[in-house]
Prior knowledge:
The protein has helices at 10-14, 31-40, 56-66, 77-85, 106-112, 114-131; strands at residues 3-4, 22-24, 43-49, 98-104, 138-142. By secondary structure, it is of the alpha/beta class. Residues 45-142 form the Barstar (barnase inhibitor) domain.
Amino acid sequence: MTGPLPAPGLSALLYGSTPPGVYDLPPTDTPARVLALAADADWRAAPLRLDGVTDKAAFLDRCAADLDFPDWFGRNWDALADCLMDLSWWREGSKVRGSLLIAVDWDAFRKAAPEAARTAQAIFDEAVDYWADSESPLTVLLA
């Protein structure tokens, strides 16, 4: 389940005192600032730009493009879960402290495609839980 990022905020998340999760991006932060802070903290981060995305197919297409999913991505919910639970395609060749996905314009997508957004968020929750106890957790920020 999503909720606000607990105080003290993003720095605590990136340096390990706040657990990984699916959180709302604090209104005082911007995706660009988050990406910069994540890079400084040795996190692999990427924006998922959802502007104009109004259905499942467009969401999955945007995931493939923005997150540079591997060729085997099947553009369905199971394939999304598979990609987020096997991040080897994203972490190739580098040791990172964590992975951060920023879903930009999430509210607009959620309003346009509520069922698809619920399913996507459930997959985000499962993937975050899967990676939570690893050396390199996954966090999703909904912006």
